[in-house]
Write a structure and sequence with these properties.
Number of helices: 25
Radius of gyration: 26 Å
Oligomer: single chain
Strand order of the largest sheet: 3-2-1-4-7-6-10
Structural class: alpha/beta
Distance between the termini: 62 Å
Shape: globular
Largest sheet: 7 strands, mixed
Number of strands: 17
Strand content: 5-15%
């Protein structure tokens, strides 16, 4: 017996239903299973067997406390594989992401499994050569193989791989590309070390998606869909939104889908399937482990605190019950005067150890108001001078303390301003201490240091000007009021590039509105930190007025 399964949270029920409907046609004899990661999904019972991940060997109760939806859905995968391969009478187990549609039997996969116990598909079989995202480097960071597909049969080498993979996913199934981790996927770069004969399938009809569509020809004939003349077995609609059927994926900018093209027809067919299966209703449900039993939302900082504790051996038998909620707000044993959430944030953002900084910035730091109230009651340390000295203390003064109104920049003598200009690392450190995001992008770090902190802390013009000048020159090829700052943000955002093309006046105006409505703030550059000539430009004034209306 062959088992084909997918894993979903309840908000992906429409994708799971569509996948299972396609499998009912393409693989009618397979045992089709939907693994529900965050609780029952009764509406899927009519299209497949539905089993909760917790009943298939995955430590869901603990993981529900420290993993977000994408992380949990991928973290349980090796545990599910291990359990299913041990079922009586099972010949093979194949995983498919829920946003896949299967057009034909998985014959190439079965042929490979006859020779080897493990099958994978690479993201690409040759380097990408056209402009756009993702780049080759982006794909390398996310992993050599796309784990939207994986097929295995019982084998000692596979068992060893699954045991190792499960241990990696227990605590390290995170999205941290800079740290070399991308959910369960990046870990599988090492799969061939465990299974040296693993089949790396390069058939163009397997796992066709935005990352490997470059240079390939999609067509529909009397016998169905083909790619480069080969049968299309399954297409991976990663990042597709049926509300935007001409947008291949929110994760890419390489392809523009032409109306009337074969790709447009394929996307339209899939959009109809999703809509027929209640996509809008399922999407609105959200993640089932998004809140405690009390209704309080589980914040990113809470998940970081729980993950750090779990790595150290802590368990959460109450799941997201009242005991775990109380645990978050209790004093951290290793950090007297700080709550567990506050201490977790302070490991990355030292200013969070001080109530005068943590309490007003709790939500920006990834906590919430109850977390701030709990920290206020504990009355942790108050003075950086008790912990820091010399240049580090200066950075505290001109950064967090100045922003909090505890230090006036006028108190610095003139020679200190000269020293800050001569040693700009102190200003950079002030920005680092003042940052509220857990993992800011490089661009946010740069712009927050140049605009956000100087504006909030009241730095004089002599300090601000050299930091901001490179970003305020006119953007090449664009009219005023577009400065390099705006272009830098646009260049960093494939999604924004797709929505607001700068080669059209309307696209430029809409991009400017997006910047003023929150895009600048997202990168740590408040609108009011812009120079007067940019703010006073007629196009800027019109954009601001349109937002007020």
């Amino acid at each position: 017996m062959d088992v084909i399964f997918t894993i979903v949270s309840r908000n992906y029920a429409a994708q799971a239903a569509s996948l299972m409907q396609s499998l009912r046609q393409a693989e009618p004899s397979a045992r089709r299973v939907v693994v529900a990661a965050d609780g029952p999904i009764p509406e899927l019972a009519g299209v497949a067997e539905v089993i909760e991940a917790a009943d298939l060997g995955a430590p869901v109760r603990d993981m529900s406390v420290y993993y977000e939806a994408l992380e949990l859905n991928t973290a349980v995968k090796p545990f599910v594989f291990r359990t299913m391969l041990a079922w009586d009478g099972v010949d093979s187990v194949t995983y498919l992401d829920p946003d896949i549609w299967v057009f034909r039997p998985l014959a190439p996969v079965r042929e490979a499994l006859a020779r080897t116990p493990l099958c994978l598909t690479p993201h690409t079989v040759r380097p990408l050569t056209t402009p756009g995202s993702p780049t080759n480097e982006d794909l390398a960071r996310s992993g050599t193989y796309n784990l939207g597909f994986l097929s295995a049969r019982r084998d000692r080498q596979v068992d060893a791989l699954l045991d190792w993979w499960a241990e990696q996913c227990r605590f390290d199934c995170r999205v941290d590309l800079e740290g070399g981790v991308f959910t369960d996927q990046k870990h599988m770069d090492r799969a061939p070390e465990f299974v040296p004969g693993a089949a790396i399938l390069t058939h163009p009809g397997l796992n066709l998606a935005y990352w490997n569509l470059e240079g390939r020809t999609l067509a529909r004939g009397a016998d169905g869909w083909t790619v480069d003349g080969e049968p299309l077995v399954f297409f991976h609609f990663s990042g597709f939104d049926p509300a935007r059927p001409l947008d291949l994926s929110k994760h890419q900018t390489r392809f523009r889908v032409a109306r009337g093209s074969p790709l447009a027809a394929l996307l339209a067919d899939y959009a109809r399937a999703l809509n027929a299966n209640g996509h809008a209703q399922a999407k609105a449900r959200g993640y089932g482990f998004d809140r405690f039993a009390s209704g309080r939302r589980v914040t990113p900082a809470m998940r970081r605190a729980a993950l750090a504790a779990a790595r150290a051996g802590e368990t959460f038998p109450d799941g997201l019950g009242p005991a775990t909620e109380a645990w978050m707000d209790a004093e951290a044993p290793a950090a007297p005067g700080l709550t567990r959430v506050q201490a977790a944030i302070a490991r990355e953002r030292p200013a969070a150890a001080f109530p005068w900084w943590f309490v007003p910035n709790a939500e920006a730091l990834g906590a919430d108001r109850p977390s701030a109230d709990a920290a206020r009651k504990l009355k942790g340390p108050t003075e950086p001078a008790q912990r820091y000295s010399n240049d580090e203390l200066t950075a505290w003064w001109i950064g967090p303390e100045a922003i909090a109104g505890r230090f006036e920049m006028d108190a610095l003598p003139d020679h200190e301003f000269d020293r800050l200009l001569a040693e700009p690392w102190i200003m950079a450190r002030a920005a680092e201490l003042s940052e509220t995001e857990a993992r800011p992008s490089e661009l946010r770090r740069t712009l927050f240091a140049a605009f956000g902190v100087p504006h909030a802390a009241g730095w004089p013009e002599r300090l601000k000007a050299p930091l901001q000048a490179p970003h305020l020159a006119r953007a090449e090829g664009l009219p005023r009021p577009f400065v390099r700052l705006f272009r830098e943000i646009w260049d960093a955002r494939p999604d924004v590039q797709r929505l607001y093309p700068l080669d059209r006046p309307l696209g430029r105006f809409r991009f400017l509105r997006w910047l003023l409505a929150g895009g600048l703030a997202e990168y740590g550059a408040p609108v009011d930190s812009l120079p007067a000539d940019v703010l006073a430009h007629p196009l800027t004034r019109l954009a601001r007025a349109s937002l007020r209306r």
